[in-house]
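Hey, I'm writing a tutorial for new members on how sequence and structure tokens pair up, and I'd like a real worked example in the thread rather than a made-up one. If someone can provide the structure for the chain below, I'll link this post from the tutorial.
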Amino acid sequence: MSWEEGRGMRAEEDCTFGNVDSDKLPEILGREVLTDLIKNIDDVLIQVWFPCTDADGNQTLQTRRAPYVIMGSGDELAKYRIASTEFAFSNCRERVEGMPSRVFQSQRPEMTPNVQLYTSTEYPRVVHARSCRMGASIAMPIIRGFGQGTREVFGVVEVAAKSQHLDFTLLMGQLCLSLSRFGMHSEDITRVGGLELYRIADADSLHRAAARLLAVVGMENNLAFAQAWHS
């Protein structure tokens, strides 16, 4: 395992990081929150994306100079970390670019069992992800404040794994628990409208839970149609 306040390669050098009102936040995220997340997973890269304003006034998200943890052996996770530091994703409502920016703007997690299936438009790092044989990934917002008009997004925590199997429910719950100790939180979409998801043992219970979840998701997002797929 390694922990660093990362130094990148070709991200913007002349930028000012915003929305982080404490110099201790990177250390808290690195030594407390990120290390909590790796307790039950292996072969992962966990890194934080912070909002940044470059010399031209452009709003971006970058992970250069931000905390990260690599848990596992081999060079591919480290190479993917280095590749990530080369990116500065556009982070304005008019142009949202990449998974970290989508999560930052929506204030909701995004997850996938295989980042290699994204297009380059959806996931600009997809060439690097394929080269480094990356699999499942989840990105979660770091939020302060709960009420409407008081929520402020500080950044995005990204967990990228070599495997296609990540326990998304566990990771969201662990991040919320860790952040709560410092007056922050994330958006745990496994708890929505009073519905909490668990590992469900039998098919009938799974179908009932899926039906309830689809109803809530449809109402919250004004969807005319929603369906679930299973193997």
